[in-house]
Structure formats: C-alpha cells, structure tokens
Amino acid sequence: MSSNHWMMFSTFAEQRHFVYPTRDTYHGIILNANMAAHAPDGIARFILTKTYQQRYIIDPMTHAFQHDPRHITDSEGTVKRSIMKMAQEYGELITNNLGKRPLLPSMLKDEGECKDFVESCLNFQKSHISQRIETSEDAKYINFDEQDGTAPKPFALIAPYFYMKEATASLWLDINVKLAELTVKQKEDIPIFGMLVLSQGILLNNTLVNKIVEKFKSISLDGFLIWIDDLNEALAEESHLKGLISLGRKLRAISGSKQVINLHGGYFSVLATSEKLSVSALSGVCHGPEFGEYRAVIPVGGGIPIARYYIPLLHQRIRYREAAAILNEMGFLQDARTFHDKVCECPECRNTIDNNPDNFTLFGESNVKLVKRGSGLARMEYPTPRTKLRCLQHYLERKRIEYEFASTASIEQLKGDLNSGCEQFKEIIGLDQVSHLETWQQCLGD
Amino acid sequence: MIQYRKLMMTTTSTICEDDLIQAITAFFSKNGYRVRHEVPNMGQSIDLAATKNRWITAVEAKLHDWTRGLKQCKAHELVADYICIAVATQNISDRLRDQALLNGYGIIRWDNRKSVCQWIERPKRNEKVWLAQRRQFSRNLRGIEYVE
After folding, report:
1. Class of domain B2-142
2. CB of A286 within 8 A of CB of A263?
C-alpha cells in the first residue's frame, strides 16, 4: 500500500474497483457528503465489505450551496434529493434558501448560526456513517475490538468551506477561517482538516496565497484537503504547477508537515508526494476510478462516453483511436513482446493482449447504436461494458504502479521516466503533446 | 460582417453539408464505388466511406471548417486506404492544399454552380493502416446499407 494513494467514491456501481488491483492498494477513500446523506446504509455496507481496512473522509461539500441554485436542482427547479438530504443535516442556515438563492458571505455573519452549522456539519461526518456501520447486518462479521471496540470513524473531519477565486477571496476568506476556527474548537479525538477550494488564478497570486496561508496558520488544523478548480496537470502552464507546489509546501509547513491531500490530482501531484524531493508538497493525492484527476468546481455535463487508454509513459488517458494510432506508428503493436516492453505489462494488458497485439483493439471495442441527432438518426459508437472495464483496470493498475514509484524511486529515476516519455513520443505526436512531461520535470526541480 | 462577406464570396452559399455529401456520393457511385454514409470509426463517424474491390476510401465533407475536417481525417488513417476531404468552396486555400499534400489526403471540390465534382488533389495510398483495426472497421461497415 502507498500511503499517498486516495480514491474518490462516486457511484455504487464502482464499488468493486476499490479493491482492485488489491484490497490494500488505497490508503483511504473520500466520500461526498451528499452520497453519504442519501444512501448511508449502502455506504456503510460498502465500507464494511470493501474498504474496512482503509481510512475514509467525508467531504462535506458545503461549497455546493454557494453557486447558482440551478446546479443543485433538476430541470423543474426541485432540489436534487441527495443535496436536500445533505442540506437537512446541516440545518436552517443552509435549508432556508436552498434551491432558491445561493449562499452569500453576508448570510454567514451570525456567530451563533455559524456555530450551529459547524456543529451539524461535524456531527454528520462523525456519526452518520459510523452509526450505520454499527447497526449494519454486515457488522457482525467485523471485529470492532481492533478499533477500540467502536465502528470505524472518519480519518479526519473537514471544516465547512467555500470556494474562493481572486475576485471573491476577500469575501470568503474570513468566513472560511472563522468556520475552521469554530471547527477546531469542537475537536475531540478525530483530527480536523481545513479544505481549500481555489481557482487557478489564485495559484499565480503569491500575495493572496501568502495571505490565505497566514490566516490559516493561527488555527491548529491537523491537515488540509486542497482542490484547484479544473486544473488539468497535463495542460497546465508551469506557473500554475509551481503555484500548486508552493501552496502545498506552505500548507505542510503550517500543519507541521502533516497531511496535505490533493482531492483531484494527476501524476504530477503524485510526484509531488515524493519524499525524495527537497520538500514534498503533498502527502496524498486522490483520484476516482478513471475520472477525477481534475474537476471543475461548478460541474459541467458529461457527453458521449468514449474509450480511453492510459499511456503509461505519457501519464495520460488518451482516446482509444489516438492511442492506437500513436502506438501503431511507433511500431509498438508489431508483436506482444514489444507491446509489453514498450507500453505496458500490467496484468490487465497481459490478459487482454494474450500474446496477440491485434487484441489491443479490445481496448476500443464498441457497439454501434442509432441515436437521434438533429432531425435524423446517427450511428454512434459506445464502448462495451467489457471495454470500459479493461480500460479502467489497466488505469488502476498503472495508478498503483505510479503511486508506488513516486514513493520509492529516486529523483533521478522519476525524472528519467518523464524524460523517456518525452524523448520516445515527441517524434510521433510532437512537442506540444509531450511538453507536460518537460514542464513537470522543471517544476519538480526547483 | 467582413468575415461573413468573405464566406459568401468563397463558399457556394446555397448548399448545405447534406447536399455536398449527396454530390460526392454521386461522384463516387458513377466511378464504380459502393458508398455508405456515417460510418462509425473508433468513436467518430466517417461522412462517406466508398469501397471498390478491397480498397476503402474515407471522405470527410466540410462546407466551412476544413481544419476540423483534417483532424477527423487523421483518425481514419488506421482503417482507410485513401483519405479525402470534400469542400464546396470556389477557391482552395493554399493551407488546405499544403496540409492535404503533406498528409497524402485527396481534395475533392464540388462546384455548385456548374454542378461538377472534380479532383483537386488525388489521395496517396495511406500506409498507416493497422490491419487489426481495419478488420474491426470492416465488420462495422458490413452492417451498414449502401447508398444508391
């Protein structure tokens, strides 16, 4: 197990992936509060049967109430059930305007109301799932004595938080700090983490970053979760990535080098957990089963599902058609041995390729369906369930390898791996498509 | 406004993409090809796939955004022996011609005024076909009816 590896729970359909490749792959899991509120028995069962050995944290998702209410309502304006249940747990401060008006900083002025909000938010995280675990049918198979005779409690409790961008930080920062202070005052036996959800622009504003860090410095938090809005590390500029490293290091410094977990991070963030760096910027990084290496704070719609293959040396999920074209052009699909030597030899790839490189097509296998488009019908391809599973299991295998590699490899090895990807692929896909590997090296070198 | 005028001057404005596809279909059919429309290929769709004997020609029809058309052509390199972009502009831009030549793609132009389809550049044989994917594509192709 790598102590830097966290996985994000999203839907019950994904439960089995939390024990893949092995039951102990992940250090911990992160659950969204709306899921926990909506289906506590299911979550309790999931923890008991799948991830009992792992830690869990419930993200209170309080930022959901500050955005345009359309994001938490359905097309008829009714608040989504999971959000409604979560809001009811948090009390009147949240439910008063739920689905009608966004929560504004001015609504969080009253000390007493804020205290109640914090208390409800903490109680929810502390007890909502652990109580269900205790009363669950599956609990009889678990020996709670290993955990002081009680059901597993969250690894940390998260202070309520709100999203800040450069233009709004002056309004939300003091609120966020106040909520964190009130949370710490209620600390019992479970560590308290702060959560910073920031725009990318803030990373470039050193004065503002210092101000945020300085404000949180005075609170005895045990760690932080961070989430930078929609920061795709493969597309990000060097300045943003350096900003992320800098923020992580500053937060680790004020929390006594304890936990700073990036809620949505890719391989660059994983590299930033390396103890071999002069100062590692992060203690952990979270991702979902083939999603969530970056995520927008305000959710955007999905689109047609498409098979993507994770190319290990590029540390990126690439559309199957592009991955196949690249690997074919590089001659890596000539024979199975070349494929495993040059691309991937994880168990999923060995199983799928099965000594025949033509079987790489199985990572893109799809069914054709007729769908309505405009005034007519169009043929669209949808990856088969087996294709999705192959791509996902290969992805999870590679992620496990990456997290372990970042934990154990020397700086030279880490940089050598990035350099190798850059050198091998630039001739085929061009510098622009591999430049992230160069950028990552630059950022880690400082 | 300037951009719109430019567009009006360079495109045959009364034609839509479906008309262009019909014109290209007739062009290939007349030359002994069997034509299918909207053929799925690895999550994308080929506007027109023309087959003759064992050869497959993929055609992307574009009224305006030919740069997007070129990107779509790229995805067809794993499966098609010949790849073309079909346009309905009065003039063929040097950039389109250069890019097509560089990649070995053909250019077909439909002149709506004269109702004539003509080769501007003939495609070169695509050497990047990956037979495993081609077989997959051929299976998909068989499930789609020809266009008359």
Report:
1. alpha beta
2. yes
